[in-house]
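DM from R.C. (forwarded with permission)

"hey, sorry to bug you on a friday — could you get me a structure for this? deadline for the figure draft is monday and I only need the backbone to look sensible"
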Amino acid sequence: MRKKMLLTAIFLQAFCVQSAMADHKKPKAEKTKDHKTWYFVAAPLYYLGVHIPLHESGHALAIGLNPNYSLDNFQPYPHFGNGHFYFGSADAVCKSKEACADKTGLGVIFLAPYMTDMEIFAVSNWLLSTERINPTSVAGRALYFAGMVVPWWDFSFNAVWANDISDAAQIARNFEIPRWSVMAIGTSVSALGVWQLWSGYKRAFHSYKGNESGVVITPMHDSGKIGVSVGMRF
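My reply, with the result:
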């Protein structure tokens, strides 16, 4: 009896040791590193180094396309001037007294970066939501921050920060509409952007699949009107 118990104990020990060794040899599932912290750290640097020059270039391009104005004081980087801090500057100077009467054209010049931000955001969102660019790849995650997060921030910041020298104040002044209305429209568009940012974040960092709701925001303007077209999918 004692011999049987001893043999049984030896067998169980051998079985447990073998099982432990087998488990040790099994490849363990490693947590995928998404390095999201680095994307968040890089986003402000991208905003200051790339998107602000792009924002000011939007003003500059609109000035160049308008025959009544010329470009002056083009400084597409953060700086101080006239007692104020500017993230960037691009001044429109009217070419004649008659040209200065073109208030609508001047309004479009100040509106240009808003339109650029919306277009970059919409195209980037489309590329990632349709997976023409893999949203979980390095390129996809970089595009999410560079093409969605940063343009959304630029648009929202300029819509809400509406002091006397801001783009929003200039748009209101030249289109002869209340400043609060520019802020209200900008805040509404920004809120729709938050919805898409959250969906994009889930796609990029949580591999979210399924029938997602979607919003397509398309800027619209002509010589006398400005606005956006919003399409929704549920």
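R.C.: lifesaver. The helical segments are 2-25, 36-65, 103-129, 138-160, 167-175, 179-206.
me: no worries. The chain has one domain: 33-228.
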